[in-house]
Amino acid sequence: MVSDTRFAILGLLASEPGCGYDLTKRFGELFGADWRMSRGQVYGMLKTLEKDGLVESRRVVRNGRKIRLYNIMATGIEAFRVWREQPCCLTAPHREELFLKLALAQPEDLPRLLECLIDREQECVQRLHLHAKEPSPDAAVQGAWQRRASGQIGSAITAMLQAELDWVEAMKRCIEEHLGSLAGAGGAPAHIAGGQVRRVA
Questions:
Q1: Of 33, 68, 85, which closes a domain?
Q2: 16 and 70, same domain (yes or no)
């Protein structure tokens, strides 16, 4: 996330100067609830970028308050251009830790993994609700391209969360069927009650 934060800030400053609060707010407007930078991350990275000679700052008064306003320097614009022109590699979702645990599970691990899947299902539903409550990018993001890109990114995140929900549901059924077959074959049974898994003593 460090490099992401670094180039996100450079990209935002390439559009217009801003203070730490401005940059945090603008990033949130672009990407919504699913991918936020904390104000602490932004302020810490601004100090690093200034130390590296990529941005500069000055004290200004805004609405009666003194703030530190940051501008991107020519070196920062060049660094952002080089990063922007690098090819983007597809991430490897199949390397997620949960997939390892599922693939290497022993029968006694399955009830606990089912609990993990139930937790993930609830998290996905909560995140989908957050996205549904996000304001329209037309109302929040300035700039014609930024509005269009932000809308498409929001659609992609929603689609990925829905696909995750579909996969979680299929995996839950797979585990439940396997536990049922173990119970039918005389293995240690497990029962699901109220969305939770409990072992039978």
A1: 85
A2: yes
User: What SS3 string covers the chain?
Assistant: CHHHHHHHHHHHHHHCCECHHHHHHHHHHHHHHHCCCCHHHHHHHHHHHHHCCCEEEEEEEECCEEEEEEEECHHHHHHHHHHHHCCCCCCCHHHCHHHHHHHCCCHHHHHHHHHHHHHHHHHHHHHHHHHHHCCCHHHHCCCHHHHHHHHHHHHHHHHHHHHHHHHHHHHHHHHHHHHHHHHHCCCCCEEEECCEEEECC
Same domain, yes or no, for 129 and 75?
no
pTM surpassing 0.70?
A: no
Domain harbouring 14, CATH code? 1.10.10.10
Q: How many domains does the chain have?
A: 2
Question: For 101-155, how does the pLDDT look when each residue is reduced to its tens digit (9 = 90+)?
Answer: 998 899 999 999 999 999 999 999 988 887 776 655 555 555 678 778 878 888 8
